[in-house]
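How a chain folds remains the central question behind the approach discussed here. For one protein, we set the task of working out the structure tokens from the amino acid sequence alone. The sequence in question and its structure tokens are set out directly beneath this paragraph.

_____
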Amino acid sequence: MKGRTDEALEILEYLNEKSRNDPYIKNELLSIEKTVKEMNKGSYRSLFKMNEHREFHRVALAYVNQMFQQISGINLITYYSTRPLHSACNGTEHLMAAFIPNFIIEKAGRRPLMLFGAAGMSISMAVLAGTNYCLTVLNDSRAGIGQAVFLFVFNTFFAIGWLGMTWLYPAEIVPLRIRAPTNALSTSANWIFNFMVVMSTPVAFQNIGYKTSVIFAVINTFMFPCVYFFFPETRYRSLEELDAIFKKSTNVFNAVTISVKEPYRYDKHGELKPEYLEEAMRHASVDVHIAGAKFEGDKSGNEVKA
């Protein structure tokens, strides 16, 4: 955006149908500039610093969140559904289930969906282990029906709780200044553990058979308390609120407790609550004044110091 202020103003004018001299446009431009400057402050080195806002703690949550998605065992199903008809049905059902969170994520929240998904996937994997045992050890072909059903059940729980969540949560839990490098690092976890699962699953099936599903059932069971005790809710939270929560946190165990006690500044419609409105308006008026001074300074070619 450097040196392209006029273009930015033209776009803001067009989008908001207001003059560039309008206080709203000036404030919006200032907010964008502040955001860009804030994002430029981050670096990969800053991801590993544990300062007052506990950046490393939050980066670890983002990384583990992506890791959990892959070690849940989803690729055990999607990569090794070798029959074309089953693969087609599996993919179609997976796609349909993926739409469900779009309608409930803001009502239910991030944590409940992750907990719901982990619990459901754990149960599904346990059932798959049992049906696989009946098929391979007891030679009971009737178990094949249950196995087919719970492959789709597992897919549904995964789609609701973990498919899109691992791309949303890491972006919400970290400060703006380290969002880009955090997303890059956490995405690497997704592919690293994807590779690990895909490469180890055939070997596991060949050597331990149905017990492979038992391992993934245990992993999903382990994910449940991890989410419950360590992952704060980000629904209806601004970045400033999350900064305040982690600033009060003293260790990895109390962030969730603090987030529960911390009052919400915004309602379910994203509107600032009345008790916080006066303070926000005071800050906004200062920002508008600075933006106006900066804008006039840019027009006259003089440097304005606020």
Notes: The domain at 55-237 is CATH 1.20.1250.20 (Growth Hormone; Chain: A;).
